[in-house]
Amino acid sequence: MFCKALFSRVSTFPADLFLRGSFPQYGLVFDAGSSHTSLFIYQWPTDKENNTGVVSQTFSCHVNGPGISSYADNPPQAGASLRKCLDEAMTVIPRERQLETPAYLGATAGMRLLRKKNATASAQVLEAVGKAIQKYPVSFRGARIITGEDEGAYGWITINYLLESFTKYSAKSRDWIHPRSASIRGALDLGGASTQISFVPSGHIADPAEAVHFRLYGFDYAIYTHSYLCYGQNQVLKQAIRILVVRGVLSHLQKIDHPCYPVGYNESIVISDLYDSPCAKHLAPPLLLWNVTLVGTGNATLCRETFRKTFDSSSCSYNGSCGLNGVYQPKVNGKFLAFSAYYYTFYFLNLTKTKPLDTVKVTIQTFCSREWKDVGTHYPREKEEHLKNYCASANYILTLLLDGYGFSADTWGNIAFQMQATNSDIGWTLGYMLNLTNMIPPEAPRQLKGHEEPVWVASVVFIAATLVLCLVLLLLQALR
């Protein structure tokens, strides 16, 4: 009777325990940036979702085409652009897990700009991408435009979660430990339309509007975070061209030197196109709107001087403690991870490994001085639209970090240019999902690894041994 009852209980055991503990859960997040959209799928063991370090990226997909804000005139196409990546995602997530998979779309600076320019078109684009995602068997949780400050804060969470800076399990003490505060990293994010800086200052944050407070794993954090709309890579390169063009038009020039373009590179532009963004709405375009030709001169020094003119450093109401344009910022503190456009630009220039600032400047200056023909021959696989801008992007990064955020030769070594940690891409999407699914508890985690797992294993061993004994007894009874 005992064995019969045991077999009856065990028949429900795999579905009740094995499946719950063995198969992972999934989460799906679209990062709808200003220049492109990417899809990330994360997974975690069902029975350990409140532990740190168990959520990992299992899939990523780059959506073909521009960012969703580019579809303002054709919103349905924004939704259609997501289908290929969604189709691929359905081959990654097991069918039996799809309906319970939370799916999010977060739009960043490109959509923030579109909302400023045309709120109706912005809403239509979000509706279109939402409808596209809802056609798939996932638990759609909404498509929304996130704030720049949230983007910075979620990036900060992502970095420190992946690096186990908040908490980590110590096998030696069989307990969760809190790493030294020096292990907490700051986040430097550079997108196409905005840039974010987030870090834990060494002292008090003087402006409460720039502070975000978190309680994670039993510890309180007050981080400084600020997002600069219109100071992402693409928007600020256009801003630099406006400065050069205005000066050239005032001198009645139709060929205008561009110090950030390689020597020998020429590009014709329509002046009115430089003023089609909300980032330029406060600027008056030149009265004479003829086409002009930009002529590359490859001068890194003049290039950086041009980018300095995009900043307004004339006023600071916080005793000199300011970032860009008089915005309050405490002195940079601790180590930082710089990702997104920071990483891609410095990866191209072979500068992602920590090097002295003087070496970085010389490398950038040397590249900028190369002839366009030589650059094109040396990098035949690079798209021209990217290749022409590496000198400009590198000099903007230097200007932003040194003149904007206040890094120096002494603190330059605290910046690591990195795009992945523990095989997951660095960005805001993981932190966003962790926050919305409440997977980072405010209090310290229980000692799950030191107790629950051995008990579970012992239970399985006991049941298996008992089953073997029952089979032996049944076999002996049958042979009698």
UniProtKB/TrEMBL annotation:
PANTHER family: ADENOSINE/GUANOSINE DIPHOSPHATASE, ECTONUCLEOSIDE TRIPHOSPHATE DIPHOSPHOHYDROLASE 8. The chain crosses the membrane at residues 455-476. Keywords: ATP-binding, Hydrolase, Membrane, Nucleotide-binding, Transmembrane, Transmembrane helix. One of its GO terms (molecular function) is ribonucleoside triphosphate phosphatase activity. The active site is at residue 151. Belongs to the GDA1/CD39 NTPase family. One of its GO terms (biological process) is nucleoside diphosphate catabolic process. Coiled coil: none annotated. The lineage of its organism: Eukaryota, Metazoa, Chordata, Craniata, Vertebrata. This is Ectonucleoside triphosphate diphosphohydrolase 8. It comes from the Eukaryota. ATP binds at residues 192-196. GO terms for cellular component: plasma membrane. It comes from Varanus komodoensis (Komodo dragon).
